[in-house]
Amino acid sequence: MGKDDTKLKEVLALVSCYEIPMDVVFDHKQIRESFHEHLKYIHNEDPFLFLVDLEQYVTLIGVKARYNLAKKIVSEYLNETAPKAINVGSNKRQEVLDSFAKATVDDCPKDMFDAIRLQIYMELKQDCLPVFASSKPFLKVVRKELETDPNFLETIGTKKALEDQVDYSAILDANKMEFTEEDFEQFHREIRNELGYDLLKSTDTWSVSMSKQAFKNGLKVMKEVGVVDFTTDECINTYTDANYMPLIDQFLKDMQSMDFKQGPRYATNLLHVRYRMPFLMSNRDFAIISSIRREKNGSYMYIGKSVETPIIPPMKGYIRGTTLTQVYFEKISDTQTRYYFVMFCDLQGYMGATLLNKIISFRDQQFLKGLTAALTERRKLNVGAPYRSYRIYETLEHEQKMNKS
């Protein structure tokens, strides 16, 4: 790692202590330019350009000039054949088109695009700002500003309060046999919880951390973050493909879908998962329910957690463990994905919390290497959705179907 990368890593550590508001991104000239640079890199600059044009639109005093710019905005971003078409609902789009159809060079309301403007603004804030705040373009701006103003971050942002571990007590309830919207939102909060973790190891594109606080029975949570040069679709298809699971998880022996339930939004797949453990360790098994949802920006979130059910009674020769596993495949661009692998695991048996936490602290890049190898092999075969996934992928298909209805 070069001196420049080391310095940026130090800046990132400082930035992670602050909430950076969206208005600063647009109001600060250099940050605004770097945000545009970041959006071009991830092939998502059209929403930004739309907001820039609207910024000019609402400041125009002359009605004729405002009408001419509105005509340009409709042509470039909202018409069916628009070259920079933005992703908005058909109803809102039609409302604006109807409103523009009534406008004239003598009467062109300033608030014509307000509903769409707020939606695009919020989507950029939710989907792009968190990634941008840790990107090199932004960190370079911050580094330069800090050279002349040591209080720069306090000027543009708000210092975060030290975050506690997300309360997973509800989701980890062994009798809870379904997932809710709040379960997925909790995971979103946890992957952004940087202050609650101690960094153990890192490279330019990979890191592993451990929670500062014990989660349950003295055990801590592990968070691994990495970047792969594959799409989010490739990642979720590979991760759920039964043929490639042993390549991603070398200790996996087998799994079986025992029950499948469809809910109003999310389906739950009950799995019996068995692991062949390393030398001198007894084999483990888990009774898990899992589910997947797709985000608006093309990212995917998987959750799996232990349950107690008579459908999967204790098995001779295996020690029943407890786990909460969450994987988030976040879209960086059309060709790159950032993954978050967050896991709590209690192997039970004779292994105490101190020893298990120590083992986690020695974690290396096995998941990244296994996932990359599986993705590479699968791409060679040009395979789409998994043919066999122990019904894990079916939870995503159900979520997509219910999301459209």
Order of helices and strands: HEHHHHHHHHHEHEEEHHEEEEEEEHHH
CATH architect. name of the largest domain: 2-Layer Sandwich
Quantity of strands, as a count: 12
Mean pLDDT: 87
β-sheet strand percentage = 15-25%
CATH domain class of the largest domain: Alpha Beta
| Poorly predicted segments | none
Q: What is the fourth-level CATH superfamily of the largest domain?
A: START domain
Shape: globular
Helical amount among residues, as a percent range? 40-55%
Q: Quickly give the structural class.
A: alpha+beta
The number of distinct helices, counting runs of at least 4 residues, comes to 16
Give a quick account of the main beta sheet: strands, pairing sense, barrel closure. Answer: 10 strands, mixed
From the alpha carbons, calculate the radius of gyration and give it in angstroms: 24 Å
CATH fold naming of the largest domain: Alpha-D-Glucose-1,6-Bisphosphate, Chain A, domain 4
Calculate the terminal CA-CA distance, rounded to whole Å: 49 Å
